[in-house]
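Components:
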Amino acid sequence: MSSRDAILQALRQNRPPASPLPEPPAFPAPDVDLAAHFRRVIHEIGGEAVDVDADAVAATLARAYPGLTHVASTVPGYGNGPGPLQAVRDPHDLAGLELLVCRGRLGVAENGAVWLPESELIHRAAPFLTQHLAVLLEKERIVWNMHEAYARLRIEEEGFGVLVSGPSKTADIEQALVLGAHGPRSLMVLLLA
Amino acid sequence: MIEPFLALPVVDHPAAAARFNADEARTDWHDRSIWHAREKRDLAARAVPEWEALREAASQIKVHTLSRLDEYLAAFEAKAAANGIHVHWAKDAGEHNRIVGDLLDRHGARRIVKSKSMLTEECRLNPYLEARGIEVVDTDLGERIVQLRGEPPSHLVAPAIHVKKEEIGALFHERLGTLEGATDPQYLTEAARQDLRARFLAADAALTGVNFAVAETGGFVVVTNEGNADLGVHLAPLHIACMGLEKIIPKAEHLGVFLRLLARSATGQALSVYTSHFHRPRAGQQMHLVLVDNGRSTHLGRADFRSALKCIRCGACLNTCPVYRRSGGHSYGSTIPGPIGAILTPGLGLEKYRSLPFASTLCGSCSDVCPVKIDIPRQLYAWRQIIARQGHQTAGKRWAVRMAGTVLAQPALYRLLGRLLRWALRTLPRRLIYHRRNVWGRHREVPEAPRQSFHAWYTRHRTKR
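Structure:
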């Protein structure tokens, strides 16, 4: 018998008594300003969130990241747009990336997470290789909690998607918080009206 | 049951804990720093009004899933295969290691990067691969520290929690060329970042664990704070994910329940920095997933103990445990330390791990903080009974319990011995009372002996009335 069949048979033999699947819990949003809450949480977790007018994004980015030369954008109209990233064949070529600008598909107020599906990244490795990450997010895409987030997302729609909440961090040396463990050293979310 | 470890000597938790406690200042430091994690968890949990409802939901989802584990795994396998993920099944640690080793060979992979996976620790994958000539680099900072030190992790979430920054500074000075005497966490982390960045870029394959696999969608979720799992897998042409059977959940919506609990319970974060959802390999990449039994299907059949399979490895029970905090993760001699390890590990070899269920005061704090409501103290107690029945106790404890049984069954004898003991405590010199056989009195004062027993007092009181 194959290992697969042996394991499944053992699991069937040792089945615990049936137990129903609970109804999905729903905990509705308290009466808060979702965008304000989201901004506050992002600050608490070491990121930055700013309200920006659509026509001020480029200026805001230029002010926030002066002097960076290796900048990539997956958003048409910002930086050089997605063209250069689409031309990259091997993600190893992105090793020197200093800033990635991309669009977030959804924000979660309770924990400051932003959903970045593969199609917004072009390269899955890009938001991890880059030294700094800037995400554009429309305020109306912010939901209150993770239950609402998963009710909206279809996680299998794309091959890869990641919820990012804050810059890469570690506390593995005596629990001292250090930003920029392996991934981005900073995260900025630009909130669009 | 397949024993994943070599036939090592019996784990003696009290002896290992005594060695740990020999350095009192360090024990206090360890205790305090781990309690800090518990405090962060409390703050995070209290900030969620529906916390208890979430725990209950998480527990019920896991109980349900365990009752149909075979169905959900088969459904997951079919979906995952349709998504282009290669699914493998391993009965035990040996088969798991062979599958991973053969995959690496087939791809000609010599250098691999690995993110956190307690399962691969359980299977002793690293030494196996190294013996096959493969370079394995653990990329989580804490895991890298313990790998360079040549030890196993001492905590589920913070593998190097037992190491001081001075020791890490000395280690990095020797291995990564950092400045001598440097202890600044920021500086040391940066050094590891630079060193590991090069290894991510050079890796032929990346290994990860799995936090959750979703039966409904045929994908899996990996959670990190550092981004190390993602850096590995999105660069390498081969991704191998290793997963214990119990990590399956039925639906994507259940992720909302578990992820709200996991990071808050583990580190007090509302969510880990990266929650990565994998459903299909990227173009030109191969994605493999190894489903590992290694005793889990047997454990499922143990009615008294199966709920330990609900565990999501947050480490909250470790952080709250007065014994874990003061004895350190290594004293358990098992891959999973702490209260949850003390109920999971005896199933892998009762004789070897017989001391673990006794490494507890049964205070119950572990189940109070457990996000999936595992009844850890009840299981510790149940293991103790089995261990006693099978005669796995030390001769001293067996004798003591037998004596207690005899005395407690005979009131006259009990009263006589009580009188003798009260006399002895009042009369005998201190060095006799605190004889080395008096283990209880080693760190405590024996209570003052009353003039008369409660029984005598009660009898007189009743007679007067």
